[in-house]
Amino acid sequence: MDIVVDSHTHTIASGHAYSTIIENALASKNKGLKLLCTTDHAPEMPGAPHYWYFNNQRILPRFLHDVGILRGVEANTLNHAGELDLPPSSYPHLDWIIASFHEPIFAPASVKEHTQTLINVIESGKVDALGHLGNPNYPFELKPVLQCAKDNNVAIEVNNTSLTGKSRKGSDVHCSNIVELGNEIGVYFTTGSDAHFCEEIARLDLAISLLERHNVPEERVITSSASRFLNFLLLRGKPRISEFEALY
C-alpha cells in the first residue's frame, strides 16, 4: 500500500517540535508525498500557539516544494461534552481537523465516559478525524464509537508514533483491535506520522503494516492517494480547493 499524504505533523509552533513548515514540506517532497497536513497543537496544549495562528493559516501557500499543503490542527478534546479548544472563527480557515485526547487537557476517566465523549466529538460535526485512539489511558467501547465514525464520515487515524512504543506505550494492541473492527464496520482510515521533527515526516511503515495485516481495502485509506484525501474532504462538506484542482 502506497501512502502519499501525511495527515498528522507538527512544526516548532507546537512548542515541543523542532522543524519549520518549510523543512517539513521539503522532507515531504524528498519522501514522495503529494499532500502534507500541518496539524500543530491547539491552544490548550502547553506551549501551543494562540488561536490566531490557526486563523492566519490562510496566508500559507497551497504548495511548498511542490507538495500540497493542507491547513490543519490537532485540537484537544476538552470535556465530556466533546468540546474542542478552538473558537468558531478558526474553523473556516482550516481544511483538516483532528481531535485527540491529551493527558494535560483531559484527565483519563472511565470507559463509559471516554465512549460518550468520543461520540459527542464525532456528532459535533467539527472533526474530520480522531487522533491516536489506541492510547491505553483512554479505553473506550470500540463498536459504538467506530459505528458512529462510519455514520458521520469521520476518519480513524492509524498513528505511526503510537506503534513505535516510544509514545503512548501499549497502544499497539489497542490499535490492532481498532483497525480490525473498523475494517469490519467499514470506517475510513487515515495515516499520520505524528512527526515532531522533519526526518519523521512520512514515517508510516508500522501504520501501513497494520492496515495490510487486517486487509483494509486501499479505497478506505484516504491517505493512499491525493484524490481520495481531497474527495473525503468534499464528503465532509469542505469547500473544493481550487489550487488542487489537478489532484481531485
Describe this protein's structure:
Helices cover 29% and strands 14% of the residues. Strands 1, 2, 3, 4, 5, 6, 7 and 8 form an eight-stranded mixed β-sheet that branches. The chain has one domain (5-239): TIM Barrel, CATH 3.20.20. The protein has 248 residues and is of the alpha/beta class. The mean pLDDT is 97.
What is the CATH domain class?
Answer: Alpha Beta
- Helix and strand content put the structural class at alpha/beta
Percent of residues in beta strands? 5-15%
How does the overall form come out from the CA principal axes?
globular
Overall pLDDT metric: 97
- What is the number of domains? 1
CATH architecture: Alpha-Beta Barrel
CATH topology annotation:
TIM Barrel
Sheet bearing the most strands, described?
8 strands, mixed
DSSP, total strands: 8
CATH H-level homologous superfamily name: Metal-dependent hydrolases
H and E order: EHEHEEEHEHEHEHH
Helix content: 25-40%
Distance between the ends: 20 Å
Radius of gyration, in angstroms, nearest whole number = 16 Å
**Count of alpha/pi helices:** 7
Unreliable residue stretches: none
